[in-house]
Amino acid sequence: MPEILTPARTPAAVIGLGLMGRSISACLLAAGHRVVGVETSASQRRIAAPRIGSLLRQMHREGLLACPAGDLMNGFRVTGNYEEAAESRLVIEAVYEDPVSKRALFSRVESVVSPRTLIGCNTSAIPISSLQEGARHPQRILGIHWAEPAHVTRFLEVICGRQTSVAAARRVVALSRYWGKEPTLVRRDIRGFITNRCFYALLREAMYLVESGYATVADVDRSLRNDLGYWITFAGPFRFLDLTGIPAYDAVARDLFPELATTREVPELLARLARSGARGTANRRGFYRYTPKQAQSWEKLFHDFSYEVRALAMRYPEDVGDRPARRRKKRD
Q1: What SS3 state is found at 78?
Q2: What is the four-CA torsion angle of 209, 190, 195, 173, rounded to 10 degrees?
Q3: Helices 195-211 and 268-275, interaxial angle, to 10°?
């Protein structure tokens, strides 16, 4: 019988305590894991615990914690020593998006943890199969793709590499339910996984429309926000087609698909901004320009919105339409 993991029985380690690593740590602590944070940068180690504590306190204010943040922080410790992750049953890396760095990290982790410890790679696009090369136990290495802020969003993709044990992946899928996620199991390895492949296809078309003079950046944002943004929290694209009529989409697809952008080059609109050093709100230069106050305001609003849209999504989980009406009312 496959082993059943629970947070209480699964001490965890998070390798890398930057923005995403801290958010993942907060998510695991909130679910009841004991967490060791491993960070080689002394400056990042100094700020890790205060910032994770701040995330947990906000979760408590939003009603997402069953106990005070301080109690959960008792289960967290930070170190620069990989050997302190030796007792972990789950290790999640959150370091720079570079396959060479990640493979080197896995080698260090495998030298100290049990062969039964699951190792998750937080990557947005690197094929997991390539990260398994040279591993001692490649069957326990899998992708765990989070969305920022990881402690709030419902999103999680669990990705099987070519050598990943499907049983191991399913254990992580089951465990992630304790993290407040609606997880997806990606059964075969593919670059970009699900959401990034779909999102970058959308980005390519959006930038084509701007570069070709059909609309401005603001026009495209406005249209997608008020159409796609209106329903996407409630339903994915296939459910949406069921709800709004498959024949009409079949007819439009026959006409529209041949007209869509298919370039393999990075759109110049994006490449030019990247070359100029633009980083968005982080340095107040991107597709829009920001004053310092505007950048701070947009970042805070995005953070606040994450909690509000999470509350809405919780009212409409993926199986809400399959439940009897009395159960739906009780949940609401």
Answers
A1: strand
A2: 180
A3: 90
Nearest 5°: the CA angle 291, 297, 210 is 65
**Half-sphere CA count of 328, side-chain side, radius 13 A:** 11
Contact between residue 39 and residue 191 where contact means Cβ atoms under 8 Å apart: no
Residue-wise pLDDT for 161-197, tens only, equals: 999 999 999 999 999 999 999 999 999 999 999 999 9
Taking 50 as the pLDDT cut, the residues of the chain under it are 332
- 138 close to 163: Cβ distance less than 8 angstroms: yes
User: CB neighbours of 235 closer than 8 A, spacing ≥ 6?
Assistant: 243
- Domain boundary assignment for the chain: 7-186, 201-331
The reply to whether the predicted model has a pTM over 0.85 is yes
Q: Is 23 exposed, middle or buried (0-12, 13-18, 19+ CB in 10 A)?
A: buried
Q: Which CATH superfamily is domain 7-186 in?
A: NAD(P)-binding Rossmann-like Domain (3.40.50.720)
d(CA 102, CA 132): 10
Helices (H) and strands (E) in the chain, counts: 14, 8
Summary mean pLDDT of the chain: 93
Cα 85 to the center of its chain, rounded Å: 23
Residue 77, SS3 per DSSP? strand
Q: In angstroms, rounded to a whole number, what is the distance separating the alpha carbons of residues 236 and 4?
A: 29
DSSP 114-168: -TT-EEEE--SSS-HHHHTTT-SSGGGEEEEEE-SSTTT---EEEEE-TT--HHH
pLDDT score, position 97: 86
Q: Tell me: domain 201-331, CATH 3.90.180.10, correct?
A: no
Residue for token pair 């970058």: 200
